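Running this now, will post back.
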Amino acid sequence: MMKMRKITALALASVMVVGSSSMVSAEEFSVSELQVNIWDNNQLAGLQEIADAWTETSGVKVNINVVDWDNYWTLLEAGASGGDMPDVFWMHSNTAQMYMENDLLLNLDEYIENDDAIDLANYYEGIVELYTRADNGVHYAIPKDHDTIALLYNKALFDKYGVDYPTDEWTWEDLYEAAKTITEAGADDGVYGMAMNTSNNQDGWYNVVYDYGGQIITDDHKGTTIGSDEGKAGMEMVRKILTVSAPQTVVAETGTDSLFQSGLTAMITQGSWMVKSFYDSENSADYAWAMLPYADVNGNGTCDEGERYSAYNGLGWAASYNTEDPAAAYSLISFFCSEEGQKMQSELGVTMAGMKDMSDDFVTAFDGMDLSPFTRIEEEGSLYFRPYTRNTTVWEDALQQAGGFLDPWQNPEDEELMATACDNAQKIIEDAIAAE
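Update: finished.
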């Protein structure tokens, strides 16, 4: 198995953040420990190392608790109702607006203003905007990271079925043809060329829609163009790919990641936050990443501007409005989000940074695995911020159900179903936004 580069504990302990809120000593705080909640076990070890470096100067112990995605939000909501939230935790685009508007997060403005380590101009604008309350401009979280999407493929399966590896010149049509060949050749082995899932939106079908000129949510967060000709063209490409992909009954039972790691599908699209789980797989030597394909909308055989998109998103480090020691909670957040903390995060392979121009070390953090497609798409393609509104989960969940895209997803051979579903999706999103 390939070995991941590590930073020694001594090196971590020697890093000092220059910001006034991060140069701390035990005497400054009234608590002896902080409770931190996250939902990704892949990031636990690296984040704990960074937190321990902060503990070296603060004297405050940091307990990082991993809670699975569904229970994370259930427990956080329960804690908000009962007044017992963790001190520090992750925020996400799905729920940030609701938590900010209900004053459940610590107002960070005064802390940021007095912190030399944090300048919000240094972070990705879309993530800063996400965690800024629109009606009063208050900042409730600092960007932890950003992510992009790439195509993951199994070289061994491509070799077995005689298909050339993906290249930067691949269109979605090329992906379709490769998936078709592998699915047909691998039928007796139970191998599929591609696996997709309705729940894989940011890391899957959303990107196809944007490549063809549609928008799941418009830039002002007040509408959608999923029912436009462009939106339908993107979803028609998705439908076409589904006809040569693992059936949704198989995907629902096994999951795209498991299908890939079991050698039952040759390709999936996935986000940079998932790299470690594939890197740690026993078959990781067979895995490689490529940039997402593009849509040759102009028909000139080259990737023009606006024909290759990747969604990007970013988590935010937030603190509870009633944390016992706000200064300690903010100091930890500042350390995570400072230049030094962000560099450690990249070097440890935790995730790409929320601070601009700080992710090069993430690309080289996993020896033997080229992760450059995740950063090259920022330079050679286009990014759009993961679609969100005030209450994203309402329309996002509805799109996966009957009346949304469930029928065409399960019956991709029926060409008419997808166009009708796009019209339905237009109304689902518009009605959801109107009710917000």
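Residues 1-23 have pLDDT under 50 and may be disordered. More later if anyone needs it.
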